[in-house]
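ok here's Flavin-nucleotide-binding protein:
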Amino acid sequence: MSDGKKFHVARHDERELFDRDAINRLLDNQYVAHVGFIDQDNQLPFVIPMGFARDNDRILLHGSTGSRMMRQIAQGIDLCVTVTQLNAIVVARSSFNSSMNYESVMIFGVARVLEESEKDLALERITEKLVPGLSKYGRPLVSKEIAATMIVELSLNKISAKSREGDPLDDDEDVALPIWAGILPIETKLGAPITAANAAGIAVPSHIAN
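and the structure:
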């Protein structure tokens, strides 16, 4: 792996994203990272979807201490973690020129297992990413739950980011064709809270309702 801070995009390098604030916004707006690695037992590639949180210049991943993947990550294997936000389907006048509007970032490196003394803060960061306010509202974690959880950090030092936006890029000779072209926006948003059957009668707390 390169020691540089940026892995440059080889194909469609005009789509390379350099703005670190934009990269941070992408990471903060998404909930799932796809963690790619080579299984050291059978040398097969795996890509596992995982929840994650960005904390300053690192991302945090967590899983069971009994997880085969987490144990391998703890051994110091190379990782490629990908986060993508799909914004639109781009409909051109031909299937060849149709595309997608998106933002994506690939994070490369070797993760570090957090010490026990570092877990509380990391678990709070992960919890607050998924459900803001739950750390204070919910039942506190007990020691056996914390002990059963492995948390690793991966630095944002080695990244490669791309984005595409805008209209379809039809060939000049296709523009005159009487064929519709445009964008189909994709929106992801949280819906209204649905109370669990065994929580009937309990008011939706403000950190959920808001």
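+1. The longest strand covers residues 78-91.
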